[in-house]
């Protein structure tokens, strides 16, 4: 384990004494204690639960060692001077580290530093004040299982012993504590009326909205975490599968155009809306409840801390009105409508028939949004409206421009793992409204027309950026964002690719808001249960600041950018900025298949078609295709289907920070074609696993509450010969941009520029950087297996690397 804690708030003796009093470690009885050892014993007795007998608690203390010679109980009972070593011997055991296995009893402070755990700045012979400060810091220190000591105590029932004796909310070290009874939560459903009629039935759409909130919110207003999840009410997996598009089709020549942006700019065709429903009555009591929601464990964590959690699936989902539209402004409106209701600016009803109004009287008007993927995407969509009351977004793996999810530079491009999916497929999958039989039969004809409209608009036959995609590009309105943004993304996410987070990060840079970014080495995952980083604590600090207005210094404490290193386990580094290279290194491809500093003349060729048996094999096994594409072997079926250029082995470590740019002068033997490029780290070495591994421990989100599985990226047991860093694709007829189609003739040379997915990649000394140039990407592009030959002119081609020195 190597710990990284960014969310420990600054403190001093005064703060420590007050907050230890607030959580009942200090009280009137401790005022009379004169010896540090006696005070530490008192702390330990309280930590081992007042509800247990004094004998049992003493037994637990005696189970720890303070030194080689003495257990903790006998050591503390002597009231001898308390040494710093003795304190941290006990501290490590409280943090679940085992003597003899995890650390040696005579060297705990060195072990604390090796684990990157904070050590209090106290005297070697501790006084009372030292003991108070060291205990306070220890309570805020992560244990072996990735949670703070105080949260560990909470999960065992420390606060549950007497919930009513604690202030609510209870703030400790700038973060909210789990002092709310999760066995007594209120669960209710309302129907928010949105300013839209997406199914054209002459009535404004009602959106089913599920609420889980603490009982105390009936008297005291609470902050809200809102997760807008189109999957929340179920999915139609068969519909999605049946609608999935065939990708084994050839690329075609596109009719040239001379479009400018004005030709494809989305039009705001506002239609006259129905009148709002007439309110027939008002109530504070909901009529409908819910059982087990499709929850997110980060939300569960905050339910125990007094936050309300709200889920809504949006238009076209089960028990809501409307039709699915996949990412356009109607979906944005269905998100902001719920926020507006939570802030008292919109109407909701207890059911869909009686027009009985219900208000969010329990909400303090401060809303955060949470969730990953589509859930994160709708956060960005909502934020770009500047909707009042949305204080922050915790957007994980979010789409910022739907074109960059399903397309790239004039090509149809699948999100990783979902070949053949498109906007219409996603709409069909999430149209859970049809799971209500009467709704299905009533709306089937109109829904099929809506689905056909999406299919037509997505223009799968061209891959061009058009009015349909422009309506789903949130970057255009990023200037309107008022909410503070906390962005999280995987550098290896091949589903929502890193370009999406890079673009929104760049777009919000000029804005006068707080903004944070975490980049991890995962694919399309959550990181809230990682052992090595205090992500959940950071979000606690952040939301306590944003939604409870606690001045805990969160914007200053949490680094602007945190990036996980790709060469070591459990290593995170803080930076002021991403895409901040020291230099741009330009290299040129050579006849010897090297990347060199100087120009080289000549040409290199590769073909696209493969043997039919190999074609079928690669369509089913992307890993096999990728290995054959990247690795050099004489019997390799793809040896003529790509060109590989490599640098000399690196003399020292360096980092690629940002977007690698490829300049190519190329031709194709047909009047159409595509170029794909992949940047590769060549070097036989141990690398991190592609997915985080469970560590065999469950994290409790509160007392007798929900759990999550602790996990972490580990080094693979065997060395691997390469690691893909980034890739990019371009239709040769979209050399100017993604909406202008340029003419193309067979065997004619054309200049084109291609940016690979943005990255932050640590290349080790001795490794080689490789550029693989090819055409068909079996995992992502259409696969026509066409007889096309490509030629690269070396003298007019190069690769530009943004380099940050280590």
Automatic annotation (TrEMBL):
UniProt xrefs under SMART domains: PepX_C, PepX_N
Keyword annotations from UniProtKB, A to Z: Aminopeptidase, Hydrolase, Ligase, Protease, Serine protease
Record-linked Pfam families: Peptidase_S15, PepX_C, PepX_N
Domain Xaa-Pro dipeptidyl-peptidase C-terminal: 540-800
Example of a GO MF term: dipeptidyl-peptidase activity
Domain of life: Bacteria
E.C. designation(s): 3.4.14.11
Stretches assigned to the X-Prolyl dipeptidyl aminopeptidase PepX N-terminal domain: 1-158
Catalytic activity: Hydrolyzes Xaa-Pro-|- bonds to release unblocked, N-terminal dipeptides from substrates including Ala-Pro-|-p-nitroanilide and (sequentially) Tyr-Pro-|-Phe-Pro-|-Gly-Pro-|-Ile
InterPro entries reported in the protein's UniProt record: AB_hydrolase_fold (IPR029058), Galactose-bd-like_sf (IPR008979), Pept_S15_Xpro (IPR008252), PepX_N_dom (IPR015251), PepX_N_dom_sf (IPR036313), Xaa-Pro-like_dom (IPR000383), Xaa-Pro_dipept_C (IPR013736)
SUBUNIT field: Homodimer.
Function: Removes N-terminal dipeptides sequentially from polypeptides having unsubstituted N-termini provided that the penultimate residue is proline.
Family per record: Belongs to the peptidase S15 family.
Name of the protein this chain belongs to: Xaa-Pro dipeptidyl-peptidase
